[in-house]
Amino acid sequence: MPLVNMPKTQRGQETLDILCAAAERVFYKKGYHNSTIKDITSEANIGLGTFYIYFNDKKSLYVHLLSDYSKFIRKAISKKISHFTDRRDIEREGLVAFLEVVRDNQYIYNIIWESLYIDKKLFVGYYEDFARHYINYIEIAQEEGEMRKLNPETVAYVLMGIANFVGLRYTMFDKRDNFDDIADDVATIYNEGLFFPLK
Amino acid sequence: MPLVNMPKTQRGQETLDILCAAAERVFYKKGYHNSTIKDITSEANIGLGTFYIYFNDKKSLYVHLLSDYSKFIRKAISKKISHFTDRRDIEREGLVAFLEVVRDNQYIYNIIWESLYIDKKLFVGYYEDFARHYINYIEIAQEEGEMRKLNPETVAYVLMGIANFVGLRYTMFDKRDNFDDIADDVATIYNEGLFFPLK
């Protein structure tokens, strides 16, 4: 059985959305292990039985959220970069898109990283899946002679690490409205390096 | 009262070390919230009362571990880079030192990141403290004309992000013996950038 029993009607989809949004808030506030299905349905203002129309258990709902975040983040990035053709611009704008998503969805970091404490395979799978998409794009950029020919996987984790940690600082520790100066600095590193060339 | 009541004798220090090593294993295996002081003292093979010679509660022990990791990681990096003078070498070797530490101490990632679910202030404090040391070093490298003059804080989180995510991939998802080729690729990004220069 799939993780989620996808609704066939508009109304069913709305209920599922309400359920997922409630689960985000409950997981964020109480943590996954301390949250019960009853907590989630109460928060959603729906009956306990309705939960089981969509999911078999709490973990299925959690995995569904995780998979949704992955798609949601990649979609936000795709949308933001769709007008650009130069990969330097694409990488810079992709970073801004990621920062905007994690700023505007405060549950994302908490819920994704909690997978390490729920089921390590989920955590590893989340990032390996994200990396796979990135590697594909990096390999094309390398073939087209734009990116240096480094190990595409290492490059993917470098880029993901930068986005995640810059995101921690400027969206979780402090919340920024604007990421332009940060993206400019990161783009300089991508384009020219961190160090001045040796004389 | 300080977090830990530091032992004054060699034997006291040994007991504290055994207690901390047991706590690491218990937190790693059961998670912080599901671990009791009794679990930790049983794992350490010491009496429950002995715990309270050193710590007031479970959280004090956890915070002590977190603070120890921070010092331990920075010390391992300092030791590894002490023979180098060129900052390009220092940054590369510092990355290798970090990767070796997290490879050889499998509890580190889990226990540090779990702070986000124990007390967010601890998580923020851990990285802000680590960043503070890094920023100090980056500012000197910028003044001496080796590093480009970018926002030192952004640079610190870029470097921490790279180390952490490359570390996830090559020490947690898979365990590498040798990090030379990875460090070479990351060093190329630091020294020359990710993209080829525009023609």
Structure, briefly:
2 copies of one chain form a homodimer. With 199 residues, chain A is an all-alpha fold. The first copy, chain A, has helices at 10-30, 37-44, 48-54, 58-81, 87-104, 107-118, 120-143, 152-173, 180-192.
Explain what you see.
2 copies of one chain form a homodimer. The first copy, chain A, is built from 9 helices and no strands. With 199 residues, chain A is mainly α. Chain A folds into 2 domains: 1-56, Homeodomain-like (Arc Repressor Mutant, subunit A), CATH 1.10.10; 63-192, Orthogonal Bundle (Tetracycline Repressor, domain 2), CATH 1.10.357.10. In chain A, helix 4 crosses helix 5 (87-104) and helix 5 packs antiparallel against helix 9. The longest helix of chain A has 24 residues, at 58-81. The mean pLDDT of chain A is 95. The interface between A and B is large, with 53 and 53 residues.
CATH C-level category of the largest domain in chain A: Mainly Alpha
Report low-confidence residues of chain A grouped into runs of 5 or more. Answer: none
Task: Decide which structural class fits the backbone of chain A.
Answer: mainly alpha
Task: Tally the structural domains of chain A.
Answer: 2
First-last Cα distance of chain A: 62 Å
Task: Throw out a few tags for this protein.
homodimer; 199 residues; Arc Repressor Mutant, subunit A; Tetracycline Repressor, domain 2; 9 helices; 0% strand
How is this fold's topology laid out?
The structure is a homodimer of 199-residue chains.
Chain A: H1 10-30, H2 37-44, H3 48-54, H4 58-81, H5 87-104, H6 107-118, H7 120-143, H8 152-173, H9 180-192
Helix pairs in contact in A: 1-2, 4-5, 5-8, 5-9, 6-7, 7-8
